[in-house]
Design brief:
26% helix, 6-stranded mixed β-sheet, Tetrahydropterin Synthase, Chain A, 148 residues, alpha/beta, single chain, 6 strands, 3 helices
Length: 148
Amino acid sequence: MIRITKIFTFETAHVLYNYDGKCKNMHGHSYKLFVTVKGKPINDLENPKNGMVVDFGDIKAIVKAEIVDVWDHAVLINGVSPHREMGEELENKGQKVIYCNFQPTCENMLYAIAAKIKSKLPADISLAYLKLHETENSYGEWFAEDNQ
C-alpha cells in the first residue's frame, strides 16, 4: 500500500452556538486541509495512470467540488440551533451560508469532510487520513483506523 497526500486551503467563517469562550463570536479561519488516500499503484504499462495510486488531479477534483468550492468564503452555522435565524439574516443580506447539522468545530468538520470524500473515491482507493489546520498551530486529525 502507498499513501499519497494533497493539500488544500480555503477561507471559512463559523459561529459556535452556546460556546463559552472567546470564539463564541462569528470569526473566520484560513483552513489548511491535508487529504491522504491509500491504494496500490497501477501496474499496467498501457494505462496512462501507470505507477500511480490515483492521479493527484482526481483527488483535487473531488475535494474542490465537495469541500473547497462549497465552504470557501462561506459561514458555517449549526442549522439545528437558534443560530439558524442569524444565518437566514446573513443570507438575506447576500452572504453565503452553509447550514450544518452539527456544531461547526474543526473536529466535526473533519467528520463531514471524511464522509464527503469517501463517498466519491474509486472503489480501490480509500481515505486514510485527514488533517485540518484551523490556525497555524491548532489542528484536528481523522484516521481511518480510528473510524472503522
